[in-house]
TrEMBL record, chain A:
A Pfam family this chain is assigned to: Metallophos
Catalytic activity entry: O-phospho-L-threonyl-[protein] + H2O = L-threonyl-[protein] + phosphate
Protein name: Serine/threonine-protein phosphatase
Residue ranges occupied by any Serine/threonine specific protein phosphatases domain in the UniProt entry: 108-113
GO molecular function annotation: metal ion binding; protein serine/threonine phosphatase activity
Domain of life: Eukaryota
Enzyme Commission number: 3.1.3.16
Chain intervals with Polar residues compositional bias: 190-211
Biased composition (Gly residues): 233-242
TrEMBL record, chain B:
Reaction equations catalysed: [protein]-peptidylproline (omega=180) = [protein]-peptidylproline (omega=0)
Protein name, per record: Serine/threonine-protein phosphatase 2A activator
Region entry Disordered, spans: 362-476
Function: PPIases accelerate the folding of proteins. It catalyzes the cis-trans isomerization of proline imidic peptide bonds in oligopeptides. Acts as a regulatory subunit for PP2A-like phosphatases modulating their activity or substrate specificity, probably by inducing a conformational change in the catalytic subunit, a direct target of the PPIase. Can reactivate inactive phosphatase PP2A-phosphatase methylesterase complexes (PP2Ai) in presence of ATP and Mg(2+) by dissociating the inactive form from the complex.
The EC number(s) this enzyme carries: 5.2.1.8
Chief place of localization: cytoplasm
Organism placement in taxonomy: Eukaryota, Fungi, Dikarya, Ascomycota, Pezizomycotina
Family: Belongs to the PTPA-type PPIase family.
Amino acid sequence: MSDLDRAIEQLRACRLIPESQVRELCYKARELLIEEGNVVSVDAPVTICGDIHGQFHDLMELFRVGGDVPDTNYLFMGDFVDRGFYSLESFLLLLCLKVRYPDRITLIRGNHESRQITTVYGFYDECIRKYGSANVWRYCCEVFDYLALGAIVLGASSELEPTSNTALSSMPIDDSELETEVLNSRGEVTMSTYRARQRSSSDASTDSRNISPPRDISAAPGQAAAPSRSGAPGTGASGDGNGSAATSRTGAVLCVHGGLSPLIDSVDKIRLIDRKQEVPHEGAMCDLLWSDPDEIEGWGLSPRGAGFLFGGDIVKQFNHLNGLSLVARAHQLVMEGYKEMFDGGIVTVWSAPNYCYRCGNVAAILELGEDASGGGTVARSNGEYGRSNGIVADNRVVSPGRRYRVFEAAAQDTRGMPAKKPVADYFL
Amino acid sequence: MANGPVIRVLSTLDSSVLHTFIEPSKKIHESQDVSTFLTSKAYIDIMTWVLQLNRSMFPLKVADGTTQTWTLNSDAIQYSAQVRQLQRLLSKLEDIIQEVPPDTGPRRFGNISFRRWTEVVESRASDLLKECLPANLLNMCSSDEGATAETELKSYFLGSWGSGQRLDYGTGHELSFLAFLGGIWRLNGFPKSGPGVEERAIVVGVIHPYLELVRLLIKTYNLEPAGSHGVWGLDDHSFAPYIFGSAQLSPAINDNDLTPEEGSLLNAPDPGGVANAKIVERERQTNLYFSAVGFIYDVKRGPFWEHSPMLFDISGIRAGWGKINKGMIKMYNAEVLSKFPVVQHFPFGSLFSWDRDPNAPLPTSTVHTTSGPQARPVAPDSGHPSVAAARPMPGAGTQALPPMGSTAAPWAGVRREGVPSSTPSGTTRVPSALPDTSRMPPGPMAPTRAPWSAQPPPSPSQDGNADVHTKAPWAK
């Protein structure tokens, strides 16, 4: 068993690893993350997760419900730390898994993965308390600077394979396909929605479902940017019939912690950011990590004091211009664990149940299935893949089938009471 | 009595001297301003007021050798007419909850109806104050058109109820209520009695019901903690009950005794009781500390040591409730009064003045910033001011800040190297056509806005951006 596997085992048991090992881990993680682009490409199937906030036992529940790494391919949309009691255990475990199975888990940056925020919302205090110095906090913050800013999910299926053990599901009507499904933590279907199968004879993208040679990811950017009617960043579709690439009619899914930015009108612009720094107080990088969708038109000031509010028109336009079918983001507590807005153009996924021990919310993860036709089977790339500049997307882009697994906070009975730690200086 | 220590109390206005009232306004605009605040008259007055109230809650040695305690249900505490008026005010505010039931529509966390509650309170504030305070007190003014006593009191009154805009409540709002009561004291609104007599009526008769009302608001409208350290803070919302509650369980004193710094009242519950739900349930009926812990049990699910590790560790202190009380005072000074995000919204007028306290030490040099929250090294103490002055307030400890060169803690009073520039980078990022719908209630506290933005934050849209969300700590 390697040191890394031992560390994973130890962290899974909610026991911290020595400072020297944290240092080594963070060094390895940085070497790995520096190779990733600002926008990581991820193939479906993938399970998308929202905020964790140091709720380690609930993270274990998430793995129980969603499957373990590396069996399940995971994408975590940031906010691993702060607020909870186990930010260190949670983040270090995810980081170990990233180093051990780099192609099976993707971590992107949340607004809490920042020096300034962690000194206010608890992670700094936790590091001091658990390690006795700020060293580990510093190592972790250096890793934060290298985390990708977003991810593009490719090759997701528009249709879900119905869950078999479903008591509730009614037989789908003819010519309809399963679009969304909500499952509880016991795997029982609690809700399903169907949509009409779109089978227009002129639908070239439907026809192209059977042709899907893996795209050469080393293709020169210029080639990928070839004019096209249906292509889009991330989807890899050129749709020009030359056979070089094809994909399902399902558009790509952009995953980002917060949301959109008035300074970012294309996914490519995200790729141009120099991300290896502390999260700035303003600008595109800040907005991606801080913004929230809201029932407004256009852009609005955020009550958070960073990022913006953006309305449905902004999402629709952004998705259209970029050939996206969906923006998946986290960043806001939703009592039901997930919340779709703007005709399904954006979804909030929240993965911290009973947030802060008191919110009484359930958590969710979002599973996107693999297109059965085999479209979009591209390997993970380092972000230079799928460049396209201002390509107008085919407006027939269909959103992917979405399976939400909803779960509650982990039982607490197994957690024993620890010894009291020395108190703060005020009381000495 | 004559040989006892001089108990410092908040000074009251001399009615024979013309007093100039000032419409309170914010003065703490940047983190550096906190060090100026710590040398202001307002700071010394707030600390004096807190210590005066704190001192009054220590059990009293009675001549017959017994001890008089000041439990929440004590018959020995006499409520003055003014205290009863304030109780009536609080119950009127509670009644407004019935008028504005929580919204049942879709929501994230905080309930949008709380915004309406704050609006109702604001619209009735003048009437409520007139019903509660004598006209000759409220109408005190320096000229026909200038600010009145009511102007100043109303500012602190309205800041006491959490933010209707952000749907949160924190220690800054609590501070505003303490200032509201301190303002009434300064205006001679409370009757003169023996040492501590009126003060303990204020703590048990007004501050405790205030805290109960705030808890009701928090539960009714799901108010979120304003800017918290997550589990690593003392409490999501409150601080005062931990100060006054630990005083209730500290050793008994005479009026002449120094305030004890360790030991406990005979038969006081063990501090470790906070981790035991049954003990908490029993003690919360009589004690402010346990009533605050009891509220945590009401709203949180999970092991106590996990969601409240700070209180859990404090519960292991062996040196008694006096030790805990002293620590709480130090911590309040450092974690509430010295924290930019908390005090930045505190408005300064004539009752709590931004003017420099002539006895204050020179402002802490911004060069000495290696660690520790920015805390004024002098605490006015009931008892021996000179001794207190020589005792430095706590500095670093577990609150040590990241080292130089890294980003400064936003709540620190001092700007450090490496703070991301707050100067706008020149890019036009805020769409200029945005409507400024913002009307920030004068609430103090609250996680803050971006320092670069000139406008106050906007009010969230209709459905409320009301979840338990993170605010940018660098914002003002």
